[in-house]
Each structure stands twice: as structure tokens, then as C-alpha cells.
Amino acid sequence: MVSRRFEKVDWQQTPMGEISLRRRLEPSLLVDVYEVKLGEEFLMSSLFTVAEIELARLGLAAATGDGLDVVVGGLGLGYTAVAALEDARVLTVTVVEALEPVISWHQRQLLPDTATLTTDPRTALVQGDFFALVREGQGFGGAPDLVHAVLLDIDHTPHHVLHPSHADLYAREGLERLAARLHPGGVFALWSDDPPEDAFTALLSKVFDDAAAHEVVFANPLTGGTSSNTVYVATRTGGE
Q: Beta strands of 110-195 (E only): which ranges?
């Protein structure tokens, strides 16, 4: 059965503006594509998920041990959280999402590609401001005080943020507050829409014991070429 060419699946007002979930038929591939917009700003698409998945894979590849407690900052379409759950070492995944409508999309099973997220007992979806929780030193919902990995995909880049209140996390003091929430050996991984920035990698290296920027290249079916995002991975060292 061929889907309708376009459908506005859900739209709701939030403190950050109207957020909408749209489904459209991509004519070049004949597949359904789910897209999210905040006001007039395009946030994400199910057509481009490679880097969101690699955020989890690269971040958790740097983590050691078993029984990993993972925090995902930003729920979105759910690809990062689902990829984290595919790692057999993961004990819990706590997803912190500021906007209740986004959580409701998953609770209502509106996104078929990531429908397993809410049925996995290791998952907890928490409505909250990730940046405020880090700033105030509060726990991430029901997650332990210290976690093994934080995977963050909320802002476009460390310099192009969705809200001014997010900016302090990407400065040294903000990164130090976040690092303090990690076990020794813990990992902070960050998605960015821009190419790797040497200056930001250097800043991460001042806070963490090791930092690297990974360029993730993927096919772009709309252009017939390739596109890329960046995943920064920073780790703490030392024993428990």
C-alpha cells in the first residue's frame, strides 16, 4: 500500500515554540520519512540517522566494563537510544527530553523504526532540561548519581544551540560539571552537524583525559553524494 505523500502526524505548542512531527513519502526511494521541526527550524529526519546511531556506537565503544548506565540527552526520533540498547553491556538507558510531545510520540508508538524503545525494560524516558540538570548537579531522573556514558544530541553544534541557556555546557566549567557525573573510565559523546573543530576537541582535552573527533560520512540519497556529521568522544580514566 502506498502511503499518502504528506501527513502532519502531530503538532503541539511548547515553551520553545511549536514542534511538529511530519511524515512524507520520499519519491526517489519510495519510503516513508519522518521529520521534526521546531517552529520553522528543521531538527531531524529519519532519512539521515547514521551519525545518530554512531553517536551511541562510538561512545559506548570507548566505555569499559559491563552493567553500563547510560544517559541520552535528547530523545528525538529515538535512534541513538535504540542503538545504545543494542549493546549487550548496557544495563539502563535514561533518556532526558525537554519536550513532552516528543516523549508522547514514542509512548504512542508513532515512530515505527524505533518502536522497541518504549518496550525495552531497560529504558526510562524522563521529561526534563538536560542542561539545567547538569548545571544544578541534580540526578538524571532515576539514573544513578554517576553514570558510565552520556550521549548528547540536542543542539546543532556546540556553537549553534537551540536555546541560549544551553551554551554554558560547552564551555570549560560546563564540561567539568558534566565530567563530574561520570564514573572513572566514563565517556561523554556529542553529536555535531559541523565538521570536526580542533578548538572544541582541544577544550575537551583540557577537561577529559582523552578526546577525539570522528567524522561520520554517509550517503545522501537526495544529492546522490555524501554528507557528514561529527561525533566527539571524550573519556575519563582511572579506577573506581
A: 123-127, 147-152, 182-192
